[in-house]
Batch of 2 targets.
Target 1
Amino acid sequence: MNITAGSIGVLTLSNVLANANVQSTTAVTVPFIQDLTLDTTAGTQTYNVLDNSAAKTFTTTNTNQISLNMLVDEATFFGDGSNAERVANVGLLGSSINKDRVHFELAFEGTDTGGRSVTGSGFISGLAPVLNMENAVITSPMTIVIDGQITNTTV
Amino acid sequence: MSKRSDLLTQLTSSLSGSNVSVSSELPWITGSEPLYVQNMKVLYLDEEQISQDILFTTLDSHEVVSNVSTINGYLQVDAKNQPGDIANVVSNVLSAKSVISGVVSKQSDYETEITSDKITYTFEYRFTDT
């Protein structure tokens, strides 16, 4: 999958499940993402049996999260205070403070129909804006702690 | 106004009454020598040079660019008998960088070179903005 084509790793957020898709005109698209990781770590259970010298393992429940680093966009981070879409209204910071559930779609191949994507819902965490004279722009990590299972789908 | 213009205005003010004057001309070449060699005790500022560095790129093809502006200044005086206020002149030339606004970083330094009985002060201003 080629990331040099631009518009890769599009992440849109909404408080309304029906709006949480990358083609929505009302959902919030997180801009200026520098890097993004979708973590789907599975728990494991290991046990020993008498007829095998090696331990046996099976996976248990997954712990899923999206973590990213971004340049802080004022409107997206702090909210515009007037939008009907709550994530846009209170911003990423407000959603984290209020512990609002956000529905998301993470598209791996841009916003064109048929592109690979992952959907789910969770809570915004891990915001840590850094103001540094070396860089002259404000950057911040962000984590979406995913509640439940994610869905492997297409746009 | 350009950074060079702002510096010229500040230098003209801060060096008034000193043994060094400020020219608004570029240090062009007359005969085989630049103007600051022909006209000693006159400070000349060269044209602004700009280089760009990419600070950040993002997945949505956005780039944050850093612009570094460099302006050189030249002053030549008699090495055998420097002006009595040369230390103040150098200090004022270096501190003129403070007049530039809207930048993240302001730096200035100088170096000297003695040729025959002349000493040439070469100043460099560097300003960084995004």
Target 2
Amino acid sequence: MKRVLALLLGAAMLWAAGVLASETPKPGGVLRFAVGAEPPNYDCHAQTSFAFIHPVRPHYSTLLEFDTAKYPAIKGDLAESWAVSKDGLTYTFKLHKGVKFHDGSAFSSEDIKATYDRLRNPPPGVRSVRQASYVDIASIETPDPLTVVFKLKKPNASMLTNFASPWDCVYSAAKLKQDPRFPEHNIMGTGPFTFVEHVAGSHWTGRKFDGYFRKGHPYLNGYVAIFISGAPMVNALAAGEVLAEFRGHSPADRDRLVKALGDRAVVQESPWVCSLVVTFNTKKKPFDDQRVRKALSLAIDRWGGAQALSKVALVRHVGGLLRPGYDLAASEKELLTYPGFSKDINASRAEAKKLLQAAGVPNLAFTLTNRNVAMPYTPVGVFLVDQWRQIGVNVKHEQLETRLYLAAQQRDNPTFDAALDFNCDFMDEPNLQLQKYLSHDRSTINYAQQTDRVLDDLYDKQSGELDKKKRYALLRDFEKRALDEAYTIPTIWWHRIIVHDKAMKGWHITPSHYVGQDLADVWLDQ
Amino acid sequence: MIPTLLGVAVLVFALLRLMPGDPVATMLLGDGGGANIPLQVIEQERARLGLDQPMYIQFVKWFGSALRGDFGISMWTGKPVVYEIGVRLELSLQVAVMATILAILLALPLGTLSAVFKDTWIDQAIRLFSIAGLAVPSFWLGMIVILLLLTLFHWIPPLTFTPFLTDPWENLSQLIWPALSVGYRYSAVSTRMMRSSILEVLQEDYIRTARAKGVVERLVVARHAMRNAMLPVVTVLGLEFAFLIGGLVVTEQVFNLNGIGKLFVQAVARSDFTMIQGLVLLVSVFFVLINFAIDMMYAFLDPRIRYR
């Protein structure tokens, strides 16, 4: 009996060792993945697209980064540790020792200072598109080469997570001093991969940086990002020519890939920090009337629509101004109390008709301006047109290519009636997601053109509120007002679907397609 | 050539700027990220690209540089337009050449046979082949080819371009498929033209004379008919070749070819004015040069044609 038990125990140990061995990262291999578009230039601080992040991010480090296995938790990247003062005005970071740039030069706190000075006060000719995120920084001090101290003018609830922004690539202070525009055409970071080549229109190649400060990383010898989109990209995945694409697939593409790849397919799904919103042109009648805007929001059956559309489009989740599931977002119970979020759609639509009657436009007709991008703009646009038809509103669906679409919403002479717009960010953060709802003179991405100082005031209050409970309450006040005024209304939040080959391991999906793309922890099980 | 190019340059320059919309807004606000970009950044970018200057100054600066071979900097990538085109030109040229060779190899014999064996089963078969080539869009054929390769062999052509001299096998395994897809349609047009042309020539007096002299039919066709029938076919081949340089937009998308057609579409989607202007001028130059080459070919094929 003892012998049998010993044999069984030995077998169990062997099995466990086998399991562990298969999950122990293996060094080597070159990861080939697809990217649906190409980075315009090489400067992180000037970019807004995933097309930049996916091929370029592996060359750089940031001060902090998101722990993708535990999103939204943050961990250090170049920062070994950090401390935030109780009043929220001082952020002190201790940096890793022995970090080198790809040209062999040593990294120090001066590089962090130079990077963040460039982000918040770009020199002439340098484009920094996220200056607004760093306006609260009063000064940056470097008491020693491994310490950097940020002092703020006022508390900012998102400052710590801002330091984890994937767009805050750390540049060499020496290179910036020689040429502030150096990063536009040169890649030189401290990240896990060095730059090898960029063949315009074709691909981007990176090679393992042997001097990377995190020992044992990266596991890959290199990567090749191939610029390919649409059906050819899906074909490439099905044929195994690329192992992954990190933005997201539609449900139909997912099903096709699972069928083609069989047991080689791994599907990872997550809610997405992206939503489509309807923006009304408040400079144009009758959308200057709050009753009309609110009526159009009430008419939309978000719950039913999410269920139906999730089968054909990459939308799925019903939420307010913040992503459902995020800890500062409204709970479902709270959502149900907001206009346009009741599950009794008939009652909502009856109220909508009354509002249109009261506003004097019972047979309203207008044009919904949309982008000519299939997923998910087209299905959501069609859905909205149908929803408004249920209350007797006739809507023409006009899909335009990007330039004309933006032209219709231009600041000095907006010609659109209502437009379907997107709101995507690198993380769940009200300071980012709510910028679309700020007054026109404070936000270049507010196409509704309204001025609402109540909303501006609530935004400013929540922005500096470090107490989570108080911030939550302020956000609910903001949300209630924004949804009641309905200058811009949320529709349905996106759902991210990634299908990759099982050979690629160590990559975890998060609600953001901008985060977790340095590839330092990715390995190939081949 | 210069007046033609000047006319094209003025037209494309004006049309781009007459369209509504702002290329800087497209660049900064049109794609992901949702960043609340300060207005002064947008204005700064407009000034950097010279879009704040009067249109005539923009045109004079650009066209003046273009005449010296400098087509400016891409508004999107910041790299020279000449560089961006140069990276892609080899592939587009190679596909065009391969498709043209295929078209010639098919069109000349098939068109001739179809004419010589008019109204026989050979003629019917060749006409069916060429009409199918005209009816089937080349990009659709390309999609079918890709799907067949994927389904039957679990394989697709390489995704990145390898120059022929670096690795001929890799190069051909990528480009043979789009060349076949495009070349088929190309050959169909030329086959039809060759057939009509041969039929017309075979009615000529000198053909009757050759037959009357006792020349065998094979030599009548090869030595007398074909050469005289080539003129319209050369025109068609030449114009189709010029079109292939920048016109294979959808085919390049299907096969993921990093060619001039794809660059064209991207430039238009990005409102990259300088790139669009450079590409239109490039294609115009090609058309002019190819027309010139066709005219020279006429003189070679028909000694009666001489240019003063």
